[in-house]
Structures are given as C-alpha cells and as structure tokens.
Amino acid sequence: MTPGEETALDATRLEDLAQGALVLAAGAEHSSYRASLDWARASIAEHGPVPLIRPGDLGSERMCVTVSLLGSSAALAEQLPTGEEPRRAVRALERRLGRTADAVVPLNTAAENALLAVVTAASCGLPLVDGDGCGRVLPLLEQTTFTIAGVDVAPVALATPAGDVVVVEAAGSRVEELVRPLVLAAGGWAVAACYAMDGARLAATVVPGTVSRALAAGSPGHGDPFALWQPKPRRLGIGRITAVEHPATPGADAAGGTALPSRPTSVVVSETEGLHRRFRLEAHNEVLLVLADGAPAAAAPDQILMLSAADQRVLDVERAIPGVEVEIVVIPAAPAWHSPQGRRLAAAGGLILLSPDLEPDARRVKHPDAERPEETRW
C-alpha cells in the first residue's frame, strides 16, 4: 500500500490473495487450503469487503489481535469449520483483556493463515492490517517478530470446531507445549487469537506490507511470483532431486528443547546446469539448511524454498520425489530475524544453530549418514 491508498479485500482481491499466499506455503495441504478459501469466500459474501490498513493507521489507543490456525491443516479439511471459530476466539480474548479489538493481523500470510485472517476480520467487522508477525513461515507459535520485540503471546484464546473455547496464560516459552495437546484433544485444529497489543507497538514490531506483497504475487500477469519482492530472493540453482531421506526415529531435538511438529527430512538435489553442484537440503517442517558440495550455502532464518521447475509452484519437502526438477530459492528474512535474539528464536526446536556472524555453524550439524536414514533414491 502507498500513502493515501485505500484497499478493500473484495471477492476479486481475495482470489489474488489466495494465489499469492501460496508463495510461502511450503507445507500447504491442498484440501485444507481449498476449504479455507471457500470459508473466506463465504465470509466476504456475507459480511462484505474487508478494509486493508497500514500498521501505522491504528495509533496507541486502539488494540490489534493476531490470529492463526493451530494444529494440522489436514485436520481442517476433515473436520470442517462451523464458521464461528474466529469470532469466538477474538471475543474470548476481548473478555479476558477487558478491551475491544480494533483490527486483526495475521501471524503469517501463507496459505490458510492469510485466508483465516480475512475470515476473522470479516466476521468480526474489523479491518485487516497489511503486515504479519513473521514475514515468512516458522512452525512454532512464539516464533514471531513480536516475541523478538518483547510482546507476550499470552493470553492465547483457542476456539475449536467442537465448540470449545479455552484461554491459556503461561510464559511464552511454555505456550507451545501447553497449547499443542489441547489442540490434539479438540480434534486436531483450532483458531488462536493472541499477541494482543496497541497500534503503536504493532507498528514497531510487525513485518509491514506482507498482505500487499501476497496480493501482488497473486495478481494476474505476474509470471514471476517474486517480481515485486524487496529485497529480491536469491536463486541458488536448478537441479533434479536424486534422494529423499528420513531418519528412523525423529524424537526431540538434540538440545532438549521443543521438538518441531514434523519429522526430519533430507533432500539431495544434483544441479543440472552451472557448477553442477550437489545440494543437500536439511528440513524439519521446512528447509532449515542448504549445503552445496558440503559447504553451507543458506540457512534459517532466511526462508528456503524448492520451486517446481515446471510451474514455479512451491514444493513441500514432504512431497519431494526423486526425479523431479526443482529450483532452490532463498528469501531473505526480515531484519529482526538477523538480530542475535531473532537468530536464537528462529533456531528454537530446529536442527541447526546459527553462529553469531550469521553463518551456519557446520560443526553443530550432525552428519545425516550417522542416523542410517530410510532412503528413497532415483
């Protein structure tokens, strides 16, 4: 958004957002994405267009609430929403805080979360903030630029499709381990309203412009989804997947921290042009590290994506198959993620640690062959 520009998300712009939100959706389930899109379409049809506002438009007297889908996106497709979950989550948080929400901001603008934010804003009659709390995707609820800046994730209000409403208050580092069992017991997914803050603090901590970025990426005529991104993503190379490996026992991370809600995966890509390097992508929920001929080439907190060379769509590591040609792309993280606090938070529960000079510490990366992984080779 440019100064003075007013944007409303109507039915047409919603389709642009839905398409652009897939750019960061490395693990999107097609069925849950379609269910979320249908939900957003119905919300816009019932409640009308959603105003899109800049983070600085709120001011210090108004409150913004962050919303996110928690749990398994696949469970969303199996247990469809009633439509009341976002409104009930926001109202529960309002009751706990004794304040009324004035705007909604997405935790991130990838796939279901971008669409859920539209549903929440429409059903609550609130504007949507053009920004989010990540600028990318990370698997844990407390992994946000809000946390880096000292904003508490709690209280967290959860609303489930079964009609449950639960408010959780805990130290930020314990929220994930308390919330996850609740979500599983409730059927596998829930809507969370959290990170309540005033507009001034939001403007200082949010990653701005991410909704507009997704809208631009999804607009017709943009063949390159990264055409309008700043800074520009870095393209490491194009190659063919030659191996996909999974450790036999995922378990908790070696440091004893919070384990990520997925299994470790390694993807080997042989470059088919240029230097003909051998890339190894180490992933846990998402790609966390890329080695090129054994040397670190990219690492979290930057977001690393595999794009199908055929159609430029994001390829989830869980769906990587030997023989598929992919392009490896690195999207620079928001500056907050490259601060010492940001690097520590991004590495929480991950497979790698980042050294103070922003380079992956190769000494801390366990050699994948030591785990005798199950392996699928071409």
TrEMBL record:
Signal peptide: none annotated. Residues 13-169 form the S-Me-THD N-terminal domain. InterPro entries: S-Me-THD-like_C (IPR048350), S-Me-THD_C_sf (IPR024071), S-Me-THD_N (IPR010318), S-Me-THD_N_sf (IPR027479). Residues 174-346 form the S-Me-THD-like C-terminal domain. It comes from the Bacteria. This is DUF917 domain-containing protein. It comes from Streptomyces tanashiensis.
